[in-house]
């Protein structure tokens, strides 16, 4: 049964999508270790699944570039959209930067990760109001952990007005930036050259939307972070 399902996904959607579908299937069959607490990028959060996070925890500088950009470009009073917030580190940092006069709206396709984000906002100092949606923005081609089962679907054109967009969605960044209905003054986006949202594609979309590329961090041939301003 499972092999027939995977063969159908391969035929319909291609090998890269199949990989993440298989990964999601494996993760869904793992016993969940609830209650584990970990620190990622200085933020206390909850381990949705210990095996899935082993590689993330061991990676030096986890989300350090995004967090550095948030600290530099998010201002008190800003409304921030955090699209693809992972385990809550960027959401907490954004809430600490924009303060009680600001607001953070977070979209995360994985229900496990959404729970971790909610936990992180409760366990860390977050002076700004934070709203966490278990939702896919755009097509959500590469949803890790649980595959996004049960998540709401949100069109990029329906994103609310904001000052800052943070976008790290494993290859769907180009689609979201091209179609988003809001016009933030600052965009912080991760480009994935090996997926469908490479450096050139992202910068072309931003330029077309009258953004200027202010800063690029990382390796444009693999994964880079782009900060753009109106």
Describe this structure in words.
This protein has 230 residues and is of the alpha/beta class. The protein folds into 2 domains: 1-30, no CATH class; 36-229, 3-Layer(aba) Sandwich (Rossmann fold). Helices cover 37% and strands 24% of the residues. The chain has 8 helices and 10 strands. The chain has helices spanning 2-13, 15-29, 50-57, 64-73, 89-98, 111-123, 173-179, 199-208, and strands at 37-40, 43-46, 79-83, 103-108, 130-137, 152-154, 164-167, 186-192, 212-218, 223-229. It has an 8-stranded mixed β-sheet, with helices on both faces. Strands 1-2 form a two-stranded antiparallel ribbon. Helix 4 runs parallel beside helix 5 (89-98) and helix 7 runs parallel beside helix 8 (199-208). The model is unreliable at 1-13 and 27-34 (pLDDT under 50).
How are the elements arranged and paired?
Blueprint: H1 2-13, H2 15-29, E1 37-40, E2 43-46, H3 50-57, H4 64-73, E3 79-83, H5 89-98, E4 103-108, H6 111-123, E5 130-137, E6 152-154, E7 164-167, H7 173-179, E8 186-192, H8 199-208, E9 212-218, E10 223-229
Parallel strand pairs: 3-4, 3-7, 4-5, 5-6, 7-8
Antiparallel strand pairs: 1-2, 8-10, 9-10
Helix pairs in contact: 1-2, 4-5, 7-8
Explain briefly what this protein structure is.
The chain has helices spanning 2-13, 15-29, 50-57, 64-73, 89-98, 111-123, 173-179, 199-208; strands at 37-40, 43-46, 79-83, 103-108, 130-137, 152-154, 164-167, 186-192, 212-218, 223-229. By secondary structure, it is an alpha/beta fold.
